[in-house]
Amino acid sequence: MNKINDFCIDFCQKHHVDPEELEEVFAFGRNSHDADVLSDLVNRGIKTATTSVYDLDGAMPVVGKYAIVLNGKNEPVCVIQNKTVEIMPFKNVSAEHAYLEGEGDRSYEYWRKVHEKFFAQECEEDLDTTFTENTEVVCETFEKVD
Fold it and tell me: Where is the ASCH domain positioned along the sequence (predicted)?
C-alpha cells in the first residue's frame, strides 16, 4: 500500500491536485492478467474508455475526478481523469465507445463478445442477477494524466 500512497502523494503534489479529487484506486478486469494488459493499454494511451455494469448500490464515477490505475501486482501504473459518464442499456453502447476501449482488434463485435461474457459472469457471481442486453451499464471516457 505504501507504493500506492507514495504515488498518490507524488501525483497530487506534481499536478496541484487535492487528494480528495482522487476518486478511486482500481485495476481493470477480474484477474491479474487482465489488469496487466488493460493497464498497459491505458498507459500507452490506447484505452481511453471503459464500461461497467451499473450497480445501484455502488459508487458512480464523477466527471473530472481522478483515479489511480493498478497493474496485476496492485502497483500504480498511471492516473486517469474521467471526461464523460453515461448510463445506458448494454445494447445501446456504440461502436465508437467500443473502439475507445482499445481492446482486441477494437471492433464492436470483439468488444461485445468479450463484454457479454465478462458482464454475465460479474452479474451472476457478484450482483446475484442475470445479464441481458437491457442491463444498464456505465460508459466512461477518460484521459491519462500521468
Answer: 26-146
What is the pLDDT of the chain when averaged over all its residues? 94
Pairwise CA distance, residues 123 & 53, whole Å: 8
The residue whose grid cell reads 487535492 is: 18
Domain count, the chain: 1
Taking the C-alpha atoms of residue 132 and residue 117, their distance in angstroms, rounded to an integer, is: 11
Full domain range(s) for residue 41 = 2-144
What is the pTM (predicted TM-score) of this model?
0.92
Q: pLDDT tens digits, residue range 5-37?
A: 999 999 999 999 998 888 889 999 999 999 999
